[in-house]
Amino acid sequence: MAAGAGMYVACSIATVYDSLISHNSIQVTSSGRGIEARGGAIFVKGDRRGGWDTSLKMDNSKVFFNQISITGLQVGAGGVSALGGAVYLTACTEEASIAQSDFQGNSAQVVLEEIASSSLRVDVEGGSIASGNGLTDCSLAIVDSKFTRNSVKVSGRGSVSVGVTARGGALALRGGTLQDVSLRVERSGFVSNSVNVAGDDREASVGGGAISLTGGRALSRTTALSIRNSTFHDNQLGRAVESINGGGDFNGTAVAIRQLNAGGSVQAQLDFNTISFRGSSTSEPAVAGISVEATEQSSFSFVANAMVNGDARGNFQALNCEGSFSFSSQVNRLDEANSCNGFDPLELGFIQEDLLLGELIFSPTELPHFIPAGNSVLVDALTPVSCVDSKGNSVTRDQLSRPRGDGACDIGATER
């Protein structure tokens, strides 16, 4: 396994403060099989038996243009994985944290040649950060940070029997077998991250243009997701193949949540976010901005989010969300005439009209965000009593850490 081109940390807490981590690369050219590459810049691995404090603590750092690239694959059964273009985490003993940091242009990619194998599996996840695939894995908190133009990509030529998993243009988190795992995102921005699969016939699981969350494999394990006061814009999914004979799935332009183990569950809360995917690049219709595949034990709360979509590039109309949801009763706003698949939007308190968000505001010194127009339906839409998250906690500040409201607060990530 190739891992951690810039920093390899085992059974310790990696601290990265006020740093520039740039242009580290793991490049593998091989015609063989059983290839693993993880953490193009940073690899953090704990002792699965415990006993050693292991985590990552990052603050005020820039993580730019790190890469994992595997090329030249031609023959051989087995697996090939490229996980975490910049950072890979596994077997943490405490929550990893990333604060006031900037992840830009990181990537994980695999390029296939003429594939002769009948059982090759390719797994490419987490353009910037990946965690998982272990017995004990890492919970992660992201605060006041931005992820821009990070990518996951699979390209080249192969047979239909090549199975591809490509997920999490910015982040891909998988739950562990022996513990509950969580991803918490607060006051952050995700812009123009992408997942793309191109080439010959193949079965492909493609999802999570910005974030992919997959529940743990064990019975009774919970994988928790919380996203609050954050902005998503122009994150993309793309699948361009000559023909699709192998099936697969394609979901979650912004966020994809999966829990396929009948005994496990995902508990997800998305509160006070702005999610815009008008510019999503999709190659087939009805790709939702948020997708949930979950067991009956899972729940999904969705409070005071502003969602905007429209004709994606290629003139395909995207849904706002699809899958199974346990909705909160709080008010949400959607534009135009779209709805969450299988639900009556009026019964859920959705209002479908132009939200008047305007253009994305994005600079080197600011988190990406929208400021709604003064006459937007988002402005002062909630009374102080209603300005609470999925758990009933008061939401007193917005994405930019400004106070929310003077008697009423706005729907979405930012106050006008």
Secondary-structure map with pairings?
Blueprint: E1 2-3, E2 7-10, E3 13-17, E4 20-22, E5 25-29, E6 35-38, E7 42-45, E8 55-59, E9 62-64, E10 67-73, E11 78-83, E12 87-90, E13 96-99, E14 102-104, E15 107-112, E16 120-125, E17 129-131, E18 140-143, E19 146-148, E20 151-156, E21 163-167, E22 171-174, E23 181-186, E24 189-191, E25 194-199, E26 203-207, E27 211-214, E28 222-228, E29 231-233, E30 236-241, E31 248-251, E32 255-258, E33 265-271, E34 274-276, E35 290-293, E36 299-303, E37 306-308, E38 311-312, E39 316-317, E40 321-323, E41 332-334, E42 350-352, E43 361-363, E44 366-369
Parallel strand pairs: 1-6, 2-7, 3-8, 4-9, 5-10, 6-11, 7-12, 8-13, 9-14, 10-15, 11-16, 12-17, 13-18, 14-19, 15-20, 16-21, 17-22, 18-23, 19-24, 20-25, 21-26, 22-27, 23-28, 24-29, 25-30, 26-31, 27-32, 28-33, 29-34, 32-35, 33-36, 34-37, 35-40, 37-41, 41-42
Antiparallel strand pairs: 38-39, 43-44
